[in-house]
Design a protein that fits this description.
By secondary structure, this protein is mainly alpha-helical. The chain has one domain. Helices cover about 75% and strands about 5% of the residues. The protein has seven helices and two strands. A two-stranded antiparallel sheet has the order 1-2.
């Protein structure tokens, strides 16, 4: 398994442009929210004794994601817990609606448009084009960037920046050949 530094530097190497990162702070949450809405439409109940718990595929997806995030980096994972709880709550406001699927699809498309606008400025393709793990690392990358903005996890930031720049240079050299 790749380390947090490897994962974040791989993602960051195609996210060095300030405008691209800003668009990702809008696009990724929209995409994740849309997916959460879609995964929250169906529910299933589990009864243990007299207590019934309702679950959605979104909850299962995020629990698995959180396990991976905690394995990568505990402090970032705690931030992701807060983000995921807010995301699940906001999705629960939309998922019971009659047009929830249409709303989610519209949000999903808007999120991707914003993402691709950012990559236009970056002049680099999205991370998941080369590594599908970019889709799961994207939200964690944003959490890391938020931590860095707040002055947290400075050592992690200092480790991934040079790695990302080196990877970007290697990509650009390979593209020249």
């Amino acid at each position: 398994m790749k380390t947090i530094e490897e994962q974040l530097s791989q993602y960051k190497c195609v996210h060095l442009n300030r405008i691209n990162i800003q668009t990702h702070f809008v696009g990724i949450p929209l995409i994740i929210w849309a997916i959460t809405i879609l995964l929250s439409i169906s529910t299933f109940d589990v009864t243990l004794g007299n207590i019934t718990f309702s679950y959605t595929p979104a909850i299962i997806f995020f629990l698995v994601s959180l396990l991976y995030y905690f394995k990568l980096h505990i402090n970032l994972a705690f931030g992701m817990v807060i983000y995921i709880c807010v995301n699940l709550y906001l999705a629960s406001l939309i998922s019971p609606m009659e047009h929830a699927v249409s709303i989610a699809i519209a949000i999903f498309v808007i999120g991707w448009i914003i993402q691709f606008i950012g990559h236009y400025y970056e002049k680099a393709k999205p991370a998941f084009f080369d590594d599908i793990m970019g889709l799961i690392i994207g939200p964690l990358f944003l959490m890391a960037e938020l931590y860095f903005i707040l002055g947290l996890e400075k050592q992690l930031d200092e480790r991934i920046k040079p790695m990302a720049i080196d990877k970007r240079r290697a990509i650009e050299r390979a593209n020249q050949n």
